[in-house]
Amino acid sequence: MSSEPLFEKVFTVEGKDYIRAGSVSIEIRKILEGFGIDPETTRRVAIITYEAEINIALYAERGKLKLLVFPGEIRLEIKDKGPGIENIEMALENGYSTATAEMRELGFGAGMGLPNIERNSDEFSITSTFGEGTKLLITIKPKVGKPS
Amino acid sequence: MKLHEVVDKLGLTVKAGQAGLDREVTGGYASDLLSDVIANAREGDIWVTLQVHENVVAVSLLAKVAAVIMVGGREPAADTALKAEAEGIPMLSTEMSTFEIVALLSDLGIRGGRRSGT
């Protein structure tokens, strides 16, 4: 799709403070609701952005999340500066996690983050450089609504 | 069923978010793993958990749950209560365990099981 986005915004996601993470996702949910995007699609985007935000907060130093809203699709570009993922295949497996005991005790790091993101995306790609960071490119196509 | 009826019938203590007590409860979900809740709880669910930290409010807003019940006498942490109050999301507390409170919620007709597997 080569059309101009209806809306575009880059959000900064801070690392480390995972207890308070999620504010970017809440803002994005409100933006999409403002565009009249259907509830199932806003829900899918909320799951994806929440998991991405939590992943940055749990593991990376900081990250950026770019939201692009097009007439028939929503795109997310999420980049972080951090340790990267050593084994992407394993990280995409449900239940695989490198979270600490403290993170797990608080209900984080269940190994469901990337699987949740992949499951709720229509298009999903992940690239990671060990020691540098991770990049996710995601497209969500609303099931309801007019195609562009 | 209205949330305030659930609160009255099950003797729950309202710790924050009184403003949201007229919400409608349309189902329930019980889990302590945040990724599980965000993926599987549905709008209008009452969420039963033992987590009390601030991220519970973020998950509640994103999953659009009607309220949170904290089990085993747990109460929202100070920051959690402040944030929940500001957002009008009821934080409820019970001495009961997850199993006990879910059984009673079910007796009131509040059920889970509308999962699409997505």
Fold and architecture overview:
The complex is a heterodimer of chains A (148) and B (118). Chain A has 148 residues and is of the alpha+beta class. Chain A has one domain: Heat Shock Protein 90, CATH 3.30.565.10. Chain A is built from 5 helices and 5 strands, in the order βααββαααββ. Chain A has helices at 23-34, 39-59, 88-91, 101-105, 113-120; strands at residues 7-14, 62-69, 74-81, 123-129, 133-140. Chain A has a 5-stranded antiparallel β-sheet, with helices on one face. In chain A, a hairpin with a 4-residue loop joins strand 2 and strand 3. The N and C termini of chain A lie close together (9 Å). The model of chain B has no long low-confidence stretch (mean pLDDT 95). Chain B starts with a helix and ends in an 11-residue tail after the last helix. A 5-stranded mixed β-sheet of chain B has the order 1-5-4-3-2. Chain B has one domain: Udp-n-acetylmuramoylalanyl-d-glutamate--2,6- Diaminopimelate Ligase, Chain: A, domain 1 (3-Layer(aba) Sandwich). Chain B is globular and about 35 Å long. The chains are: A alpha+beta (148), B alpha/beta (118). Chain A binds chain B through residues 18-23, 25-26, 29, 39, 43-44, 46-47, 50-51, 54, 106-108, 110, 112-113, 116, 119-120, and chain B through 32-36, 38-39, 43, 49, 51, 53-55, 58-59, 61-64, 118.
Describe the secondary structure blueprint for this structure.
The complex is a heterodimer of chains A (148) and B (118).
Chain A: E1 7-14, H1 23-34, H2 39-59, E2 62-69, E3 74-81, H3 88-91, H4 101-105, H5 113-120, E4 123-129, E5 133-140
Antiparallel strand pairs in A: 1-2, 2-3, 3-5, 4-5
Helix pairs in contact in A: 1-2, 2-5
Chain B: H1 3-10, E1 13-16, E2 27-30, H2 34-40, E3 45-49, H3 55-63, E4 67-70, H4 78-87, E5 91-93, H5 98-107
Parallel strand pairs in B: 2-3, 3-4, 4-5
Antiparallel strand pairs in B: 1-5
